[in-house]
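Internal ticket #5521
Category: modeling
Description: The requester needs a full-assembly model to guide mutagenesis choices. All entity lines are attached below as received. Residue total reported by intake: 717.
Assigned to: D.W.
Attached entities:
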Amino acid sequence: MVDTIQIILVYTFVLGSLYLLISLGFSIVCGVLRVFHLGYGVTFIVAVYAMWMLMKEFHFGLVSAMIGMFIIQTLFTLGIIYFPVVKRYIEQEELLLTSLILISLIVEESANFFYPVTAGVNIPTTILPGAMKIGKASIPIQMLIASAVAVVTTAAFVLFLLKSRRGLVIRAVSQDIESAQLMGANVGRVYALAMVLSAIPPTICMLVIAPIWSIEPSLGLPLMMTAILVAILGGLGNIRGSMMASYIVGFLSSSVAFLFNPRMMGLATLITVFIVLIFRPEGIAKSESLW
Amino acid sequence: MEGKMSKRIVLLIGVLGLAGMLLWVGPGHTAETIKMGYIGNFSWPVAADAFYAAKLAVDEINKAGGIQGRQVELLNEDSRGQTPMATAAYKKLVMTKGAMMVMIAEGSEINFACQEAGADLYPEFKHIAMNTCTSHEELGDKVVKNYKRYKFYFRPFLKTTSYFQFLKENIEAMNYLTKAKTMALIIEDALWTEYFRKGLLGKYPPFKEIVEGTGVKVVYYAETATGEKMFLPILDAIAAKKPDYIYNLNAYSDAVIFAKQWATSGAADIDYYNNGGASTMPGYWGMTGGAALGVVCTTYTTKAAVTERTIPFIEGVKARYNKDLNWVSYSSYDAPYLIKTAADLAKSTDIEAIIKSLEAVEMVGVSGKAKFDETHTYIYGYPYQTAVRAQFQKDGINVVVFPYDVAKATNPDKTFVPIKKLRKGL
C-alpha cells in the first residue's frame, strides 16, 4: 500500500504539472479578458503544425523552427484571434464564441488538408530518452522534464504578474476594469498582451510533450477540454485556483488509475468537476481575479 | 414565307435538341452505367485510404470491359463519421443516384443505421450493401435471422467470431515469438470490443479467457477509453508485473500516443503487439517518430504475397495514386470485384440474381480466398481470409513475422527480434 501511495504521489506531480501547463493560458484569458476562449485549442495546433511546416517546407533547423513558430503563434494570436474577433466581439458573446469555434475548425481542417494524420508529422524535441525510477514509479524522463518546465513556466508567470509593473496593470484590469482605466491603464493593450501571454504555455506544452503525445489535426479539442475542466474546478480565470485544480485532477487521475481502474480516470474528473459546479460554481479559488 | 421558314427552323432545332437530350440521358450514357457508392468519413484515414482501393478496382474493371459490358461509375459521399449524415448519404446514393451497390467504410454504429435504412429501401430500391470495415457479430446475425429483410447486406470483412480466430492467431504467434509465459492485455472500451470484453454467448468466452487458454497467463488486464491520451499509469503498472509481452486490442484509441509513451516508459523493454488503428497505416513509423521500433502489428504495405492479387494491389495503388494503404483497404478493393464476379456468374446485372450469385461465389481476394458464409461475411482462416503481421525494425522496415510461410517467403533472412535487442541496436 505504501508503494501505491508513493506511486500516486509521483503521478500526482507529473500529471498535475502537465494539466497546469495545458490550462495556464486558458486561465489567463478568462481572468483578464473575461472571455471563455473556445478557440484555445487552436494554439496547440498552430504550435506543432507551424513548426512542422517550417522544418519540412522551408528546411528550418530545430531551434530556428522554434523561434519562427513562436513568431507565427504571436502573429496568429493577434492577427487572427485578437484584433479581428476578440476585440471586435468582446461585448457580443454569441458572435465571439461562434467566431472562435469557426477559427478552430478552419485551422483544424487546414492542418488536416495539408498534413493529414498519415503524413507522419513529428516534432523531434526529445531532450532525454528513456525512463527514470522514482521509488516504485518509472516515469519517462521527457515527462519529468515537461513537469519541471510546467513548474518553471508557472512560476515565471506568477512572478511576472506579482512583481512586474506590467503584471500589476494586468492584475488591475483583471480585478476592476473601470478603476484600472481611470488609473490610466490602456485596456486594449493589456488585452492584447494577455492574449499573447496566453499562447505561451500551450506552445511550450506542445514542444515538451510532442515526443510522448500524438500529433494530429484534432489534438486541440481534448487539450482544450482538459484546460476548461481545470479552469472550472479552479475558478474561472484564477491562476492560483488553476494550480490547485491541476494537482487535484492529477491526484484524482492517478488515484483512480492505481487504486481502482484506469478506464475511470477521465470519468472521475468529470464527476468531480460536475459536483463542484453544483455546490461551488465559483470553483475552489476564493478570488474572481487573476491571482 | 420568311416567317414560315423561321418557324420550321425553330421547330427543327427544337426536335433535334429534344432528340439530343433523349440520347444524352438515354441508354448510351446513364442506363448502361452501373453506379457504385462509397460512404466513409474522409477525415478518418482508414476510410479515406480505402476509397483509393475501391477506385482502383473500379478503374481496373472498367478497363477490362466493365460488368456484363456496362461501365462502372464510383460515387463517394463523406459522412464525417456522423450517423445521420451517413444514413442520408446512403439513401441519396440508393434513391437519387441509383447506386446498385454501396460500400460502407464505417464503424458499427453507422453500419447498423445504414443496414436498417437499406432494409427499408430494398423492396422499392433493389441494391446491395457492402460493409467493408466493421466486425460486429449482430450485423451478420441479422441476415440469418431475417434473411428476407437483410439479404442485401454483405460484409467482405471479418465478423467478431472470425476476429476471435484472428486474435487467437495473434496471441499464439506472440506466445511463440516471445517464448511467453505471461502477458498484459489491454482492450479498448468500444462497441466493437463488447464481445471480446464480455464474451459471445454460446460461441466464445471473454477474450482474456481465450488468451489464457493458449497457455499464457494474463498478469495485467485493463480496459481503456477510446479518447484516452494518458497511458503512463497503465504502462507503469504493466512494468511492475514484468509480462513477456503487451497486447493492445484497439482500433479507435490513440496507437501513436501509446507507442510513444510505451517507448519512453518503464515498459519499454517489453515486447508489444498493437492490434489496430494507426499502426495499420503506412505512416505509423513517421507518426511515432520511430517510437514504433519493435511494435508488431497487422500490415498490408509490406509486399507479402498472401494471394496472387496482394502485390498487384499494393503496387497498383502505389503506381496510380502514390499511396500506401492501410490493411482495411483490401475489402474495399474486393467489393467491386465481388459484384463483377457474381454478375458474371449470374450472367446478369439483376440485383436478386447477383445476391444469389454472391452467396455462392468464390474468388481470389487480396487477403486470401473470398467466400461468404451464411451471415454474408467473409470466411476467415487460411486458405480463406488471413492477415499479414509484421514487426517494425531498424529504420522502420516492416519484417513479416506471421503467417510463418508468408514470412519465410517474404523475408527469409529476417525474423522477429525481441525489443530489448532492437533497442540495443542488434
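Resolution: model delivered.
Comment from assignee: DSSP finds 18 helices and 14 strands in chain B.
Ticket closed.
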